[in-house]
Amino acid sequence: MEPVTFGVLGPVVAWDGAGDALPLRGPRHRAVLARLITARRRVVPVARLVADLWDEPGTGSAGAVQTFVADLRRALEPDRPARAPARLLVTEGPGYALRAAPDAVDAWRFEAAVTDAAKVPPAKALQQLDGAQELWRGPAYAEFAHEDWARGERARLAELRLGAVEQRARARLDLGQEAEAVPDLHAHVSEHPWREEGWRLLALALYRAGRQADALAVLRRARTMLAEELGVDPGPALRRLETDVLTQNPRLTLPAGPSSAAARLWTQVATDYDRTVAAGARARLESTVQLVRNLAVTGGGGLRAAQEHRLAAVTAAEEFGDPVLTARVIGAYDVPAVWTRGDDPDRARQIVAAAERALAALPQDGTHTAARGRLLATVALEMRGTRSARGPQAAREAEDIARLLDDPILLAFALNGAFMQSCTRAGLAARRDAIGAQLVELAARHGLENFEVLGRLIRMQARSALGDFPAADGHAAAADRLAERHERPLVGVFTQWYGALRLAAAGRTPEVEAAYEAAAERLRGCGMPGLERGLVPLTRLCLRLADGRTSARQAAEHVDPDDDWGPYRPWIEPYVHLGAGARENAADLLRAVPEPPADLLYEALCCLQAAVALELGDRTTPARLHARLSPAAGELAGAGSGLISLGPVDRWLTAMSEGSHSV
């Protein structure tokens, strides 16, 4: 049985393992439960419970408490055999205790997250604090606001929450996200004007955002408020900040804390480099590519910016007319890629064209074999999702060169290209798993943390397709640990989507929709349009069809043609017309649907097409799709993406063989 969890950050509630609220009956039952939670696993004597629950206890009050406890035990442990001792709400000595696990109460999880956030880097702290704030459903112990026994705990949690808001703002400032911090801080000081730290952080955020006048106005408003409302002057921190803003003290532009030294060093080195290296030097271009390479894995808008700068660097390199320099600039961008659909097909074609020109122009004397290998790996990566024979050919040649040279970094890059070309047909999850295993072993041996993360994500996807979720869980957890250690926030986008897929595969339906919504929110703005566009509505459609009980016609009724379906629209148009009752139009559109691109959603798109064909009684299309999907027998359709699943491929193959509407 899944553990029971409790919520006190809002109305008091208990949930079962499936996320459904348990029946706690009347307000006195909830009061007993809440009072035991405030005791934090300690025993509360019956006499104390009676005194807390009744202003004027009667002779039957102690018996009533026993009744409340018995009712709560039935609600919290409904499967406990008669006369078996309670495991959760236990009797001990003169009273009762709730032996909930440390992470079973939202308030306890909130407190732990806030405490832990103070010990980790700003990016991780921000992530933890965001999650902690989402636990709040309203004021703590909401329905017991006027009870003496709840007052102290309510005040403590409220203070902790206010401190967390300020802690979150500090993390944003440390990350250079001043503009993002300002709105929340404005709301914070408006609701809690006595919080001097809130005023300080708001003024500092405004100053760093280039709004010096607004920062001074905030500081003066704080001074006026404190004088008029509390009759006190601002504390030392506010006074010092006002002086620093007026004098434009340089230290205000540097993040506070341990990262100050790093920020100062960066500024000094950049200044020295700018002064020492000539503006037109080729070294500047190659150094720029290294920066762009690092920018791509930083999260936020870094990936999008890196992609734009990368093409500009390639164009600038070609202007020198030196194919060796061009090859170095193109090949230096060995950023691991895990999604098999490109973010910008036009930009990818330009990169491939430049790489092919450099390959043709490189001297054929054998002195640039490594550069040739990097160019070939680039071609394989950038031709992802296409059906050109050049992509797989380039991947094989790059891998052969890397093994010939015994170059582990080049080999990791080449294996990434091989992975990108491993979706040319259905049923290749085992091949991808083998590539991932090679990457994990190679990267761990040579300290290539980015490629170790890639290998873990590839294996997470592949083991999902093969239905081996325990192994996939292990790879997802390992990827998260590496991402935390090396500050790679984009990794969490993929592992969080996998977490939602995992809930769906486990049949935990009440939690699935919220999990996918949270994953989608994290994906937005990450600079991966090739992954993001169309994924959310596609996920909703797949969830409806995954259990085999919903027909294509029923699913089509929920398809919104105005959603951004991105590259998946050709497979969705038949559903749009089917849902509108235009079966002939749906059939025409179905016949026009192309073979899915060579990417990780190949099997899923085949199944979506098959569902409509079966609904329409089309005999030709299912036969063609059966041939395409047969190599994936025994796998889970779509799960190789690590994002969604349409259930067992075998079920779809059977339905296509029998011509059944039900899959």
What can you tell me about this protein's structure?
Helices cover about 65% and strands about 0% of the residues. The chain has about 675 residues and is mostly helical. The strands form two sheets. It has a three-stranded antiparallel sheet. Helix 18 runs antiparallel to helix 19. It is globular, with a radius of gyration of 30 Å. It starts with a strand and ends in a 5-residue tail after the last helix.
Structural class: mainly alpha
Kindly, what is the distance between the CA atoms of the first and last residues, rounded to a whole number of angstroms?
30 Å
Mean pLDDT: 90
Strands, total number: 5
- State the share of residues found in helices, binned by percent: 55-70%
**Overall 3D shape:** globular
Contiguous runs where pLDDT drops below 50 for at least 5 residues: none
Rg from Cα: 30 Å
Query: What is the strand content?
Result: under 5%
Number of domains: 4
Return the CATH architecture of the largest domain.
Alpha Horseshoe
Kindly report the name of the CATH homologous superfamily of the largest domain: Tetratricopeptide repeat domain
According to CATH, what is the topology of the largest domain?
Serine Threonine Protein Phosphatase 5, Tetratricopeptide repeat
